[in-house]
Amino acid sequence: MIRNKYFTTIEKSICVKDIFKNSRFITLVKEVEKEEEIRAFLKDAKNQFPDASHHCWAYKIGINDQERKQFSDAGEPANSAGPPILQAIQHEQLINVMVIVVRYFGGIKLGISGLIRAYRESALHGLKLASRVEKIALKEFMLEKVHYQELGKIIHATESRKGRIAQIDYEDTITVLAYLPESDEAWLSNVTKNISHGRITNKPGSVKWFTFIE
Q: What's the Cα-to-Cα distance from 111 to each of 49, 75, 106, rounded to whole Å?
């Protein structure tokens, strides 16, 4: 679920088994953010279960205009496996999640409606067991030319806005790698300007996702 720059994803990876009319359905759930992670997860599943009848999957990553979602029936009848898995992800309102459902055929045909139900319920089972965590988008800011007596004020100011101090490099002057909500960029510039009378430089970077803490 997305709320401004927040979204909900899974807390942990899961592997769970279900049985429908003698067919085994093994559901693998993992948090993913990039295409290479998606490819690696699918490759690992195929290596782990090389003799399975099908390796069906779906994922949903990114938010707003960067959202991407895709699915595969992996040899099952069209739209009987991939779409039900994706529907489960969307039903749970999750982002940055991939679900792979591995099927071992048990000798009894399930029919289209039976396959849809089996894949959707298997996916939902795995997603519910994976629990939930909320994440927040924070932007990188590299603060340079910080003096020692100013460091405590910068740390306090950053934490007061639910930001994070990721790294502090101590040399002749201090460099601080901080993460703050993107909307706080102007605020941070004013804070550092007031603290150092304009000496501290502020270099914005990329946006990353962090676990949200109240």
A: 23, 14, 13
Domain boundaries, the chain: 2-130, 134-211
Helix (H) or strand (E) holding 17, with range, is: strand 14-20
Between CA 84 and CA 185 the distance in angstroms is 41
pLDDT at residue 1 in the model: 46
Task: Give domain 2-130's CATH architecture.
Answer: 2-Layer Sandwich (3.30)
CB proximity list for 144: less than 8 A, separation 6 or greater: 173, 175, 200, 201, 203
CATH class of 134-211: alpha beta
**Distance from C-alpha of 165 to C-alpha of 176, rounded to nearest angstrom:** 7
Backbone angles phi, psi at 49, to 5 degrees: -130, 65
Each residue's pLDDT tens digit, 87-133 = 999 999 999 999 999 999 999 999 999 999 999 999 999 999 999 99
How far is 183 from 48, CA to CA, in rounded Å?
Answer: 44
